[in-house]
Input
Amino acid sequence: MSDFKDQLAKCASKVDAVLDRLLREQNEDPEARLMEAMRYATLSGGKRIRPFMVVAGSGLFNVAESSALRVAAAIEMVHSYSLVHDDLPAMDDDDMRRGRPTCHMEFDEATAILAGDALLTGAFEVLADDETHADATVRSELVLSLAHAAGAAGMVGGQMLDLLAEENSLKMAEITRLQRMKTGELIGFSCEAGAILGKAPQTSRHALHAYAHDLGLAFQITDDLLDVEGDASEVGKAVGKDADAGKETFVSLMGVERAHGQAQMLADQAAQHLEIFDERAKPLIELAQFVVKRRA
Ligand code: GRG
Output
């Protein structure tokens, strides 16, 4: 696992270098505060799991590293925007994220909203730029797929369901749908982006789609477990939030022990979908184990 953590860290530092270039500071401009907040939200640690999915998935199809890193950076911008908005008082109202004050605590609410907005739109600017891929059809497919994953049928729709869940007690099938949308769709896009960049055949895409489906659920069950069993200083954010809000989660419905078993089963099953790629899938297979064993 330590070899894998080294690989994850190496990938993270390459993605951070791209983000650092994309989110250039404009020290002299009056709007510089906006970019400062965008950089604060994005270049603030984080495991960089989604970027790793893009880079490892791209490795299956001989995609140029520079293309993969730009798509990885775009996804991390969308992910960071979602965290900034999720932490706002109108949503989860959190003070700590990644072990430090949330964006609206460090800046202010209006700046945090704008920083999130600009990160989201900026991500699409990155994908649409011909530096990301020479073929306009590929760029258009990336834009369409990320828009689908991030919008009303994906992450934002899932967040709406999550807010409504505070008033309604959800059953397992409803929680699964909510989480598929809220976190699963972006994970799905992250896993399939390499196949889009590499114009991979449908069989490869289906395998990655199935991997992402199981991994997304394993990721979310582990996230719910960390909320119950984790330590706030280790996790980097408040824990016990779901129980305090009276929300049903995978863990509240299954119990801690079954949830651990289910997460591990899904991680193993995710790996099996990648058998068609042989040894080349090793980074994605190790990622699945990392996702269920992580402590943050
Ligand atoms: C507000 C539009 C909008 C959407 C919010 C994804 C989301 C929807 C909110 C995030 C809240 C949350 C804690 C969801 C659980 C799963 C999740 C996305 C955890 C954080 O992702 P990690 O563990 O975080 O990859 P790091 O910090 O490592 O990047």
Q: What stands out?
A: The chain has a mean pLDDT of 96.
